[in-house]
């Protein structure tokens, strides 16, 4: 090992220690406990192999929760990405009040999730909430957003889009700065309108930002917890329950650490598989530089 390599490792050591303690070790422990019976009736872990996984795969609730999480992701991710990119383009082309628009879109992210959840609980209230008051102007009867199994997951999706658009808008805005202006000028000379310019110039060259935002969005869609805990508690029934909240229930309501660890392991493997697929499919199709 060269002196330069050793020198670089010294600077990497704090990060490696942090990752080892707070990332890799917890993953290892989760995998270990997922192969055990570890609950209130069995306070000491007892090795049972893959029995926890078999029970989960035979449990229709698990598949309902997984389905909810996928629907949540499909509802939040593409909508948030498209809105964030659209707003980023508009702000990038705006000459006046640029900072004000950026702040207005980014502000929801500054509100703590707990406070934001309580705001939306009030807004979704069928009697006092502003959403049903607005829909009532069009003759639409009050909707029990958080108390109706048909709408509870949709309510969480709408709230998540509102909360995250500003964050991804800023990321897209930074990505747009790397696209040379002369490309837009040449497209205009060729007769391309606003839509075609962004479809054939912006979209291909924003590829690296797209894949970054896409991966972060997927991870966030599987980390949704606080709003579920405060707004619906996974209900009514299991209509708005998601993997991480279901894991929390097993760990801290049912005190079944073995099953909670199995759920954690499944979620980690599922996310890892998704990320590998994304890189495998899109990596070679991304344009990283112009020219």
Description:
With 291 residues, the chain is mainly α. The chain has one domain (59-285): MetI-like (MetI-like fold). It has helices at 3-34, 51-58, 60-92, 98-110, 113-123, 130-136, 152-176, 181-189, 194-205, 207-221, 226-232, 243-252, 257-282; strands at residues 36-39, 42-47. Helix 3 packs antiparallel against helix 10 (207-221), helix 5 runs parallel beside helix 11 and helix 10 runs antiparallel to helix 13. The protein is globular. The chain starts with a helix and ends in a 9-residue tail after the last helix.
CATH homologous superfamily title: MetI-like
Instruction: Please provide the ordered H/E string of secondary-structure elements.
Output: HEEHHHHHHHHHHHH
Q: List unreliable stretches of 5+ residues.
A: none
Helix content: over 70%
Question: What is the count of helical runs?
Answer: 13
Q: DSSP strand (E) fraction?
A: under 5%
> What is the number of strand segments?
2
Give the overall shape. Answer: globular
Strands ordered across the widest β-sheet? 1-2
């Amino acid at each position: 090992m060269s002196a330069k390599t050793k020198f670089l490792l010294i600077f990497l050591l704090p990060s490696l220690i942090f990752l080892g303690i707070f990332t890799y070790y917890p993953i290892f422990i989760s995998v270990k406990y997922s192969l055990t019976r570890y609950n209130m009736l069995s306070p000491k872990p007892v090795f049972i192999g893959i029995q926890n996984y078999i029970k989960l795969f035979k449990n229709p609730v698990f598949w309902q929760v997984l389905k909810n999480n996928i629907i949540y992701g499909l509802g939040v991710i593409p909508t948030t990405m498209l809105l964030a990119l659209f707003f980023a383009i508009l702000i990038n082309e705006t000459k006046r009040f640029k900072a004000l628009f950026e702040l207005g879109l980014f502000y929801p992210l500054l509100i703590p999730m707990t406070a934001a959840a309580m705001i939306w609980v009030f807004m979704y209230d069928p009697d006092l909430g502003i959403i049903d008051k607005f829909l009532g102007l069009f003759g639409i009867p009050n909707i029990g957003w958080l108390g109706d199994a048909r709408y509870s997951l949709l309510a969480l999706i709408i709230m998540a889009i509102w909360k995250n658009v500003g964050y991804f808008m800023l990321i897209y805005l930074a990505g747009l700065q790397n696209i040379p202006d002369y490309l837009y000028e040449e497209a205009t000379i060729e007769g391309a309108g606003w839509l075609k310019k962004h479809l054939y110039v912006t979209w291909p060259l924003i590829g690296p930002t797209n894949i970054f935002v896409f991966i972060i969005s997927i991870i966030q869609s599987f980390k949704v917890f606080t709003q579920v805990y405060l707004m619906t508690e996974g209900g009514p029934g299991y209509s708005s329950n998601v993997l991480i909240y279901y894991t929390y229930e097993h760990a801290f309501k049912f005190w079944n650490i073995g099953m909670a660890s199995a759920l954690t392991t499944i979620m980690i493997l599922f996310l890892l598989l998704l990320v590998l697929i994304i890189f495998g499919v899109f990596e070679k199709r991304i344009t990283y530089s112009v020219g």
